[in-house]
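Sample 1 of the test manifest.
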Amino acid sequence: MRLASSLNPAAAQHGFLSPTGVEIAFLLVGLVTFGAALVTVTTRQLVHAALWLVVALGGLAVEYLLLTAEFIAWVQVLIYVGSVVVLLLFGLMLTKAPIGRSPDADSGNRWAALTVAVAAAVALVWVVVDAFRATWIDLDGPPAGTTRVTGESLFRHWVLPFEALSVLLLAALVGAIVLSRKATADADASGPTAGPTAGAAAGPGATSGPKATADTPVARPGEKEGAR
Amino acid sequence: MHLAYPAVLSALLFCTGLYGVLARRNAILVLMSVELMLNAVNLNLVAFDVWLSRAAQETLHSGQALTLFTIAIAAAEIGIGLAIVLAVYRNRGTSDIDKLRDTAEGPETGGPDSSEAEKAEATA
């Protein structure tokens, strides 16, 4: 009921031609984010793509801050900018990606992809703008996404999915270790590519009690400890 | 703030990621584009959660909880995805998704590639 009542008076006192400061900041940061995303998907230098992805994800963190969701913003900075991009850079390094320009970064169907993407963008933007033409977010008052609010909702209403998610993360970590470990065990003489993962897999196993032999059932509890 | 700003930005980012997924050849660049699409969805979730937490009295903050879950699942996805890409690279010596056509159906049947594919399947 308050939802319905907040729509019509809100539409009366806002206007497109009088943007607030938050809207201007959101627009500018959004332009930077969208430009960085475009460069990420179009550049021919693979490492530059990962670095422009940092700009895009950091810009999204600023957008979260402008939307008063500060906990999400810091989680975004920590996880995406901190770890996901580093993982991507490690992936580029381990697959021996070329440093300079690689002319075959785009596949042959890029014009079909461009058509599909532009058509989807036009359709989505048209539908979204038409649907939410008279809808305003009220950013005044207490912020909607402080750590306190997010933590209370997360641990009061979303405890079971949260715990299930931790099990999923553990399974994913163990799965990633097993995937890369099997490949190193099979191609054991593959030199420098086997180095970091073999070291990472042997490190926690060496610190735990049993000696890190090639015996997988012995080494596996140590891996799980290290994965956490 | 007008709700159209984050919604339009999210739609544009999603379509940028869509273009990247369809047009890129390197598997790691495809994973980057997938990350862009996931982030577009996250922005939508956060914006609508902030809007609904103002407009409704009782809210579970499901948008922000779902955003956290999406971030965690994206981290798991990128770890598994990179492990698979590295395993493929070790077996085949390439991470170009155009050249990984072993499960492709159609007129072209990989002549010299099929024995290698069976060996890779046996080792994987």
